[in-house]
């Protein structure tokens, strides 16, 4: 049996108690690690002003305090997925957890912003190994349509849970003592999970000769890193050499990566996957999700602190509303996901994201955090739908021996979009300043962030609906 996208559906098999227990153990280990990754990812969001003051970071450097981990993620996700498929997903998963523990200690003890940013980049690479290999492990452990819908919905709900817990835990520990405390806690938990969590997992890898795509690793990693450097530096002007040089070099290296993958015998990214409609939709959807959902929502807690005077704990509470709604909706999709096409989930998720942003317009000008609450709940629900749909499509839109590659490609697109979204949101928020003001954020800039996110989300809805219409069969005449 095959799906409309040309992907072979998993064959129905009789229930196997041992397989069920193995799948449950894998789901627990992967979900726990994913939760740690997202808590760590969002740790600076609600305490950015306090972290920046402690490290002596200016406005441009503050962008890097948030975006450094995204740089590490985006540059290494495809690499991690390919290594997992070739050398063992459990091996890469556990190595990622060990590296996350070490790099998180580095972030906790960082004496200055440069050291902190470097540690966060390494955290991103470690997180890439966990996310790509983890979703690949779930794709291997769950072979049925219902099983994969259940497992990927659970995995997606951890994205929302981590985004909810991270800012809140960071704000609480900062109020009690220091923003550094959360990183120490996360380092210990990562080390424990690296030692004991790996025992819950069965090794899996592709049935082919393992080889490292060195040219692909170098061209993609360096190309994405330079592009993100250029976009982040572009906040203060796009025609400066510090922006143009990395931008041009990044484009050339990404083009070289495409050429390398097209000719390679064991490519890190099989370009033939883009012939699959579901893979194209999932990749574009992930990019637009990062750009529209993750970018503005990451900057929002800092804006409500700076423009309205909300405390770090209050800003974390607002982030909790958004991420909590995402968690609830993603978790419910384990029951409904098998009955709702993922492209429908994507379209509705983008639509709710746009509606939520539009509902928040004017909150900064009115000096009212209450006005953000309905919009946060609506856009959070949209994010939950997007996460569940993308996690499912990441493993079902590729062959069984490419599940980690599919995860790596999907998450690469998501976090490249997120990095661009954060940089664009900070640029928009610091524009439209009142006369005489030369730094910081403005109420009109806060609205510009919301409008930008809404427009991109509506483009995502249009792209997804347009894809479904093109793919729909044409009825016979008469």
TrEMBL record:
CDD domains: MFS_MMR_MDR_like (cd17321). This is MFS transporter. InterPro entries: MFS (IPR011701), MFS_dom (IPR020846), MFS_trans_sf (IPR036259). It comes from Micromonospora globbae. Residues 26-472 form the Major facilitator superfamily (MFS) profile domain. The lineage of its organism: Bacteria, Bacillati, Actinomycetota, Actinomycetes, Micromonosporales. The chain crosses the membrane at residues 26-43, 63-80, 92-110, 122-143, 155-175, 181-202, 214-233, 239-260, 281-300, 306-325, 346-364, 376-395, 415-436, 448-466. Pfam families: MFS_1 (PF07690). GO terms for molecular function: transmembrane transporter activity. It is found in: Cell membrane.
């Amino acid at each position: 049996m095959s799906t409309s996208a040309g992907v072979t559906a998993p064959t129905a098999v009789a229930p196997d108690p041992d397989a069920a227990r193995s799948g449950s153990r894998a789901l627990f280990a992967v979900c726990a690690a994913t939760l740690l990754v997202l808590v760590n990812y969002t740790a600076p969001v609600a305490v950015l002003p306090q972290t920046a003051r402690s490290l002596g970071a200016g406005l441009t450097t503050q962008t890097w305090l948030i975006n450094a981990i995204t740089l590490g993620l985006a540059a290494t996700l495809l690499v991690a997925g390919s290594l997992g498929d070739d050398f063992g997903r459990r091996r890469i998963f556990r190595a990622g957890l060990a590296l996350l523990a070490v790099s998180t200690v580095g972030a906790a003890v960082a004496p200055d912003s440069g050291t902190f940013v470097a540690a966060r980049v390494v955290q991103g690479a470690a997180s890439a190994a966990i996310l790509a290999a983890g979703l690949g492990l779930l794709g291997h452990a769950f072979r049925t349509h219902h099983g994969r819908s259940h497992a990927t919905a659970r995995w997606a709900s951890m994205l929302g849970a981590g985004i909810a817990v991270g800012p809140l835990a960071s704000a609480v520990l900062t109020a009690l003592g220091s923003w550094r405390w959360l990183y120490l806690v996360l380092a210990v938990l990562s080390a424990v999970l690296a030692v004991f969590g790996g025992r819950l997992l069965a090794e899996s890898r592709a049935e082919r000769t393992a080889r490292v795509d060195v040219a692909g690793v170098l061209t993609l990693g360096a190309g994405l890193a330079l592009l993100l450097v250029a976009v982040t530096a572009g906040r203060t002007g796009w025609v400066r050499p510090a922006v143009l040089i990395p931008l041009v070099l990044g484009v050339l290296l990404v083009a070289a990566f495409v050429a390398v993958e097209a000719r390679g015998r064991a490519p890190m990214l099989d370009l033939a996957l883009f012939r699959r409609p579901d893979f194209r939709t999932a990749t574009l959807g992930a990019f637009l999700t990062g750009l529209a959902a993750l970018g503005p929502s990451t900057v929002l807690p800092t804006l409500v602190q700076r423009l309205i005077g909300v405390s770090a704990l209050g800003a974390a509470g607002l982030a909790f509303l958004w991420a909590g709604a995402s968690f609830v909706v993603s978790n419910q999709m384990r029951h409904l996901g098998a009955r709702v096409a993922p492209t429908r989930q994507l379209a509705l998720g983008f639509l709710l994201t746009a509606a939520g942003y539009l509902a928040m317009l004017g909150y900064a000008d009115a000096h009212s955090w209450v006005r953000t609450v309905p919009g946060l709940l609506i856009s959070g629900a949209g994010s939950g739908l997007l996460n569940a749909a993308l996690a499912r499509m990441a493993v079902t839109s590729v062959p069984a021996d490419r599940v980690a590659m599919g995860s790596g490609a999907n998450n690469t697109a998501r976090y490249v979009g997120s990095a661009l979204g954060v940089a664009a949101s900070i640029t928009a928020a610091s524009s439209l300043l009142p006369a005489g003001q030369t730094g910081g954020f403005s109420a009109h800039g806060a609205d510009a962030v919301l409008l930008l996110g809404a427009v991109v989300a509506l483009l995502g809805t249009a792209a997804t609906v347009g894809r479904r219409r093109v793919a729909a069969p044409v009825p016979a005449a008469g």
